[in-house]
Amino acid sequence: MRSFLLVNPWITDFAAYDFWVRPLGLYTLAALFRAAGHRVELIDCLEGGGGEARRPPKRGAWGQGKFFSEEIARPHALRFIRKRYRRYGMTPARFRERLAAGGRPDAVLVSSMMTYWYPGVVEAIREIRGAWPGVPVILGGNYATLCEGHARAFSGADRVSAGDGERVLPPVLADLLGGTFDLGFDGGDLDSYPYPALELAGRLDAVPVLTSRGCPCRCTYCASALLNRGFRVRNPVRVADEIEHWHRRHGVVDFAFYDDALLVDAPRRAVPMLEDILRRGLACRFHCPNGLHVREMSPRIASLLFRTGFRTIRFGFETASAARQESTGGKVTTAELRQAVAYLREAGYESRDIGVYLLCGLPGQPYREMEAGIDLVAAAGARPILAEYSPIPGTPLWGEALGHARYDVAGEPLFQNNTLLPCLHREIAPGGFQALKTRARESAVNEGSR
Question: Counting beta carbons within 10 angstroms of the beta carbon of residue 20, is it exposed (0 to 12), middle (13 to 18) or buried (19 or more)?
């Protein structure tokens, strides 16, 4: 039996909000390690943790809310940005206490999310080194996969493992710890995975759920194909089983679906799952912060979503430009958006309930295109939500992004931060984008009052 410490580092950014965020990959690994007979400890730095002296951050009624945070110095590369930079999560002192409270592990596994959050990764690894000198540290996750060279050079980890942790970790651990290492499951079958070990979390007011991994679409701005091995799906009844498990045994009411393609092949996947949830009488609330595929919406699905308890409805529409819709992947048309919103309104949703993401700051995107998207979404009867574009290494749009970027996004991942609008059209002043945000906010208010 081996002992492992799993760590989810801090977010370091100008802004962050907890939309039911959980390091689901780490909790899944924890469950796999335990099922294989190993000892596991998990520290999620985004949690405040017991004993914090600071006032608890405000939480929403549905489990979303603010993180603990404190202002820190901006990294040198961002010294010219006149915005406050913060560390989100527990204090470093609290992290050191949590490290000291556990026994010496055989290895530490560190996750990573956004590429431009890597300063939190570096800081966490530095603290781990101080607490457990000589213990191997392995870094995985999105930053490790998308910026592997940078992570190897700057993270401080002994190994950087790109790709699915449960697939790439066993040989790495066998090499570092000696002998063989087998997690004893079929990585190609998502139904062979145990439920994530979320009981290790400090609080369990909401649970993230995945019905699939990956996405069959190939949108040029999206990293899903780089982070997942194809499109793999779970049995919809098994998904309902998991929801019932957390609801009946742990009292969880709020569930967030973080699928990239929740509604794809809906007659065989989403529809049976939704009908099974209704049949079981599960009085839950469901949220889709990642965005649903507009094209899959139908009167039947809209009705099922409403009756099942889906409260946070989000669509990925991205742009009102038909040419850009086609060039970025062709996953949606304007007519499909209008029809989907109409179905949801007929099912009982209000305009304020239906959020539609619009990508802003795409390479070469003019001001008028973003403005037209806001107006179109509002006129369709939904709420426009601006999503600032972040250039992601390895995506099909990356090359075009390099040609339009205001900063060295290839050499410094900090410049990939969407807050910086790194690819915003050079003719658009920062004040112009603020005007777009105001327009979106006011259109949502006006539409909601009708």
Answer: buried
With b for 16 or more beta-carbon neighbours within 10 A and e for fewer, the 385-402 pattern comes to bbbbbbbbbebbbbebbe
Structurally, what CATH architecture does the domain formed by 3-177 represent?
3-Layer(aba) Sandwich (3.40)
Q: Which two tokens stand for residue 294?
A: 């507009």
User: From residue 272, how far is each of 11, 263, 265, 281, 449 by CA, in Å?
Assistant: 37, 11, 11, 14, 35
Sorted by where each begins, the domain ranges of the chain are 3-177, 207-448
Contact partners, residue 304, CB within 8 Å, separation at least 6 = 270, 271, 274, 275, 278
> What is the residue type of 143?
Y
Query: Residues, the chain, total?
Result: 450
pTM exceeds 0.90: yes
Strand 232-233 relative to strand 212-213, pairing = antiparallel
Residue type for 433, please? F
Question: pLDDT tens digit string along 119-165?
Answer: 999 999 999 999 999 999 999 999 999 999 999 999 999 999 998 88
